[in-house]
Amino acid sequence: MGNLEADSSAFAYILSQDFVDGKERFSSNDTTDLPEEWMRYFVELAITADMAGDNLTFGFGATSTNNNGSGVFYDNLEFSQVSPVPLPAAAWLFGSALIGLTGLASRRKASA
Fold first, then answer.
1. Nearest-5° angle of CA 14, CA 17, CA 21?
2. Per-residue pLDDT of the chain (112 residues; tens, 9 = 90+)
3. CA distance 99 to 24
4. Residue 70 contacts by C-beta under 8 Å, 6 or more apart in sequence?
5. In principle, which of 7, 17, 30, 62 could form an S-S bond with 55, CB 3.0–4.6 Å?
6. Which residue windows are transmembrane per the record (predicted)?
């Protein structure tokens, strides 16, 4: 839920810190367009395999302009894993057709 007015803005972020080699990565998504009523809202912040072992910080921020409303309120946060997109069936069909054609071509060479 938000009450952002005029030029105010809001964002959700993830900060990844690798204390061994001192690297930091900051990734954020704009949440300025949150509706004014409570509802389910999704914000994607990707955690990748190369972040394993890093210190991860999740956060939310808002910037007010000229004392305009800048509140964004979050409740019942849920972190979930997104499943990878499966390979389309057409790709499997194409691959098996290529294997079949390769086998057919080698069969013809062997009989010639």
1. 155
2. 567 777 788 888 889 999 888 889 888 888 877 777 777 777 777 888 888 889 988 888 888 877 777 777 777 777 666 666 666 677 667 777 777 777 766 666 666 5
3. 45
4. 3, 4, 5, 8, 9, 10, 62, 63, 64
5. 17
6. 89-106
Find the DSSP H helices in the chain: 89-111
In the structure encoding, which two tokens stand for residue 71, read together? 């509140």
* Contact by Cβ (8 Å): 17, 71: no
Instruction: Say how far apart CA 94 and CA 97 lie, in whole Å.
Output: 5
Our CA angle for 60, 64, 69, nearest 5°, is: 95
